[in-house]
Amino acid sequence: MTVRRNSQTIDYTVTLGGRGEGEDRFGVLGVAPAVPESLFADARHEVRYGPIAAIPQALGATWNATTLTVDVLVKMVVGQASVKNISGPINIAQYAGDSVSLGITPFLKFLAIVSLSLGILNLLPVPILDGGHLLFNTIEWLRGRPLSEAAQGIGQQVGMGLLLMLMALAFYNDLHRLFAVGG
Fold first, then answer.
1. What confidence tens digit (pLDDT) does each residue in 5-49 have?
2. Interior CA angle at 103 toward 85 and 106, to 5°?
3. Beta-bridge mates of residue 68
4. pTM
5. Contact assessment for residue 171 and residue 90, using Cβ atoms and an 8 Å cutoff
6. Facing residues of 9 across strands?
7. Closest C-alpha to 88, from 5, 8, 168
8. Is residue 27 part of a domain?
9. Facing residues of 10 across strands?
């Protein structure tokens, strides 16, 4: 393998590892520091906060996760991020199982991320979701009168169609990951 760093070219000899069995066996190449794991032991530490000090830390972490989720969602809409990032119930269940096997803290963090993502999704201005109701209320406030029942019905149907397409995409992504990767 040849690596180019700045203006320097360095050649390395690498040996692939293997995963899988029989015809499903494939080569893998991993990258890790060439130092003992014990050297990184001091770099890991656990931080604990009291109940009062934990509140701003939790709010900050929630804000960071929210802005990241919204940023990725916007990037998916404008085509800068792949819609393959959308997961459905199959993938969520797999991740839940993986996180619970790591302990209660990773599992609770996972549940918080899922809850936050569902909350953000629910606030999108899509009729049928809560964000759609807020959209209708805003339109009513701006117009000084409500939308006609026909317009609201069409909006609800469009919202239901969008939601069904999103659900179909999530299931497709889940099934593709499950069967293409060998889940």
1. 888 998 888 888 777 788 878 777 766 556 555 555 555 567 889
2. 35
3. none
4. 0.65
5. yes
6. 4
7. 168
8. no
9. 3
Per the structure, the count of domains in the chain is 1
Element containing residue 10 per DSSP (H, E): strand 8-11
| Length of the chain as a residue count | 183
Is 173 a member of any domain? Answer: yes
Print the SS3 string covering 152-165: HHHHHHHHHHHHHH
Q: For 36, phi and psi rounded to 5 degrees? A: -60, 145
Helix (H) or strand (E) holding 18: strand 17-19
Using one digit for the tens of pLDDT, what is the confidence trace for 77-120? Answer: 898 989 988 899 999 999 999 888 888 888 998 999 999 999 99
Q: Is residue 9 part of a domain?
A: no
Characterise 97 by phi-psi region: left (phi > 0), alpha (psi -120 to 50), beta (else): alpha
Domain of residue 73: give its range. 50-180
Instruction: Give the tokens for residue 28.
Output: 């893998």
